[in-house]
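Exam prep: given the inputs below (a chain plus pyridoxal-5'-phosphate), describe the expected output before reading on.
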Amino acid sequence: MGAMTDLLARFPRAVLGHWPTPLERAERLSAALGGPEIWIKRDDCTGLAIGGNKTRKLEFLLGRALAEGHGTVVTFGAVQSNHARQTAAACARLGLRCELLLSRSVPRDDALYETSGNVLLDHLLGANVRIVDGIDETVKALEEIGPACVIPPGGSNATGALGYVGAALELAGQLAAPGGPGRVDRVVAATSTAGTSAGLVVGLAHAGLPARVEAICVYEPADVTSATLEALVEETADLVGMARPTGDHRVRDDWFGAGYGLPTAAMTEAVRLFARTEGLLLDPVYSGKAAAGLVGMVRAGEIGADETVVFWHTGGSPGLFVYPEVFTEPS
Ligand SMILES: *Cc1c(COP(=O)(O)O)cnc(C)c1O
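Solution:
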């Protein structure tokens, strides 16, 4: 925590979560896969309205919004955005007006998808929800809302990524603690707007941990995601005053399937495996596809049985409830 204070202390921060999140060994999952040693970083347990990775970003994004005197926050996402839900909760907690501009980026418009899961919680948390399709409707909505702090999709700019610089330093402390894994060879995380992976790459480099980040694409293919990630790594390193890290990281879209929010058989299998070996709830859009990546890399022998892997659980379980057809089929 000392290093974290030094590196991040100069940035305004609104504390919203329960820190540190647990780092737990998944012995039954490891055994089911025949090794490696798998640990789960429980960012599904950040403590803010069902948790998830956006809580860490929002501490810095909303810390800055408050410091700049904003009373209204606007952000963007898919109809079932976990980022939107956590922003709504954070704004409620901080007394900020929350405006959510949600778009139909998944080809679904059924009643369940548009009223349950995350979007139900957005309404409950008091956010003003608008479904916008296309740039014209977005511009019009922004004009209607007026002056506001505009947070990018996924909370992914360098300020948001600071949350994951801090998360990497938090992990470094847990590795070395009594009962911790001692070392980590790889970190596996679902990647869409890339603030999570960018922050981890920068933070792991700062902590001097040689772990490889395996960024598993769930939103866009590897070329696009990789460009987003590299730009954000550079901006985040600049913001904290570090040289651009040369750390080992890789962007993979082998488990992306046909598109964002579209289920795959490997995702369904991985979500079931985590649930039935560890009692862990992943989600169909993000962490389930990242878990499919972990399972796939182990089975292909890309991850050796002697390695220690941290699977970063980024949350998202409200999404389970809008994909009943995928999870209620017998298997
Ligand atoms: C947003 C999100 C991600 C991806 O994080 P990025 O920083 O946008 O790459 C992963 N998992 C869940 C559950 C998310 O909501």
